[in-house]
Protein 1
Amino acid sequence: MSKGKIIIKTAEEIAVMKESGDILCACLDMLGQNCRPGISTLELDKLAEEYIRDHGGVPTFKGYYGYPASACISINEEVVHGIPCKRKIREGDIVSIDCGVTWKGFVSDSARTFVVGTIPSEVQKLVDVTREALYLGIGAAQVGNCIRDIGLVVQQHCEKNGFSVVRDLVGHGVGREMHEPPQVPNYETSGKGPRLKPGMVIAIEPMINLGDYYVKQLADGWTYVTLDGKPSAHFEHTVAITENGPYILTNGLH
Ligand code: MF3
Ligand code: CO
């Protein structure tokens, strides 16, 4: 899954992955508009699945190692992999929605943390810094750099702002499978990791905690929460490495 040979994509395959990413981006836009007080996470998940299928895609997450839903929805101290349920969104929540689309056999994977109403300024800063860290990581996704260079800039930005980087979960290659080699850590590693080459496609996905970086998995077998109960944010894009620099496949632009 994470070890092994990195599969290089052709320009044609990357174009198909961009189509996949376009559906996913629009789906996340729609979910953001619906992420309001009173809606349940299960209702949001239903909207996601309908949107993806209506646009000819397949929700990648559904059935993945038995995962029961189309999106992961993680609220406040939930870090990632929250399972949609009857719980309703409330004013003051931060809601991380992670979703995947399979289109013409290719996967795209993206996540955003949405802010619901008014939140404390330090939590707003956590969300903003996590988003900034993702874009700094993407900026380091250049031909000739190594995987390590991505995590380095992500970690520096987050720690400079007083936040911490989750260690137990990492980004990954993306292609016909949601999880392909290589692993893409969001923190400094001892080794350089693979050198970035044109045609590699990776998901960069910083998971950043307000407090300590420790997380634990709940008894549901999926949901990760912070050990200290403080909030966590998550942003993710699927990005192709090209001679012309990083090409974000899940931001809907260009
Ligand atoms: N997007 C998640 C990741 O990158 C995958 C969610 S796990 C699933 O690891 F089982 F829900 F698909
Ligand atoms: Co991912």
Protein 2
Amino acid sequence: MRKWWKEAVGYQIYPKSFYDANGDGVGDIRGIIEKLDYLQDLGVNLLWLCPVYKSPMDDNGYDVSDYYGIAPEFGTMDDFRELLQEAKERNIKIIMDLVLNHTSDEHPWFQAACQESSPYRDFYIWHPGKPGGKEPNNWGSFFTPSCWEWHEPSQKFYMHIFSKKMPDLNWRHRPMREKLYEMARWWLDLGVDGFRVDAVAHLERQWDLADSSKSGHGPYREDWGKFSNLPKVHEYLREMHEEVFSKYDIVTVGEVGGDAGIDAALNYAGPGSNQLDMVFTFDHCWMNRGWNSYESGWHNRTDLYWLKQTFKKWQTGLYGKAWNPLYWLNHDHPRVMSQYGDPENFPKESGKMLATALMFMWGTPFIYNGEEIGMTNPNYEELSDYKDQSTMEKAQRLLDAGHDPKLVKRYIQTTSRDNSRTPMQWDDGAGGGFGSQTPWIKMNPNYKQVNAKQQILDKDSLYHYYKKLIALRRASHYKDVMVYGDFALFDEFHPNIFAFTRHYQGMTLLVACNFFAETAYLGLGPLALKEEVASNYPDANVYEGTLCLRPYEAVVYELKN
Ligand code: GLC
Ligand code: CA
């Protein structure tokens, strides 16, 4: 079924780092308003804003202390209304992050809940713990070794699967759920066009609280299985859909994250699930050993075999049943240019190749701010330049455990969430055009070479290439096949080339992307090329049924029937 959000091109904004209009070093809502023309020019028409709610900013806004207020560093509710209005005038829709798993410990609900007699007590999860003042179980959180924090005044622990300043909400408690539904309706009534639902897989816990076997990965163990994708999550989401989402023409994307397969995704967003429109999974994000090569040192080469298998799984597994969001990175991941591109030797070619792969797959693309100009990880020399709580926790833990500080630094440089949170590089002037003051987090020094202004002037830039592909997707002869066509890998086991076809109602496209710096060849077999749709080199290179793809070359052809 056709839907506006299937045909949209999304763009994720990390407000703190996008544009600082009032010069206090922190990006803000007025900054987004000022850059709406830039976004309209680029051609995107669906913005996902990371949280702008009132927050003590322990986790840059994911720790909400007032769901109905705007953080003063980001602006005011009037600014937000103006943003909605200005966006609407440009036919740009806006979805907000909706944080349902936890609040800040500074939220009035939690403050009240600290009193045992409070009607808000059951909004959160409390437990007396084991004899001897021990945690109720051994579950870890995403940010800390234990997901339990002792609360001295009430002599109980509370649960937090993220930081200890983010106590988990108790979804078993209907009055709490009603409050969240009311809040979500309030934003929809204000005019937002949907939500990216944060950490949605975790709303339910395994309530026997049995110890976990601690089989996780990463530098320390996480116990996802005990609070991820449990059956009851779907009941809650169906309820929320019934009471909130179904009443509006909106789009909802749930962050389901790692370890969820096709079946899990279909449970959330499949036919008749009546929960969400699509889910973000992370499977394709760490296919270069950036994450798990910590023990063995770095071999930062894209594992194209698994990357292709992963895309095949999601592209074919959901086709005709559900819908995929497409993205290379979000604010929790390193820059894709540093993950799968070659920013040193082939920045333009590899950036365009990655854009081609993303924009020609099946689903709704979400470009992450700065991706369109090829921003990279900053590789800060000093650990103290990193600001993210979870990054700092991890680094400290690894150092405490006696790991080689050089390796720890490399690990952080490669994996930190701050990699994607450095200020947007608007121009090559002082401070990269982000704002007049020293930004809250250090600018990536490569802003002199990599910035929006320079790329807007250069017709051959990555920015202009993104713009072209966005235009193809939104309105062109190829729109339907790009948006609605099916996906099939071509030459599935080619070691260097990611090639696939897209087919829709009599039209077929072939997309071929060389993921490496060595020239590679793709035999076309029975396929006959009709017309070039896109390419990142000035001239194509086809001889007698073979595509010759130079370093990071990407081509798209319409095929003859
Ligand atoms: C999600 C967000 C992440 C945040 C966490 C807790 O994973 O993407 O940035 O830290 O939820 O809200
Ligand atoms: Ca500001």
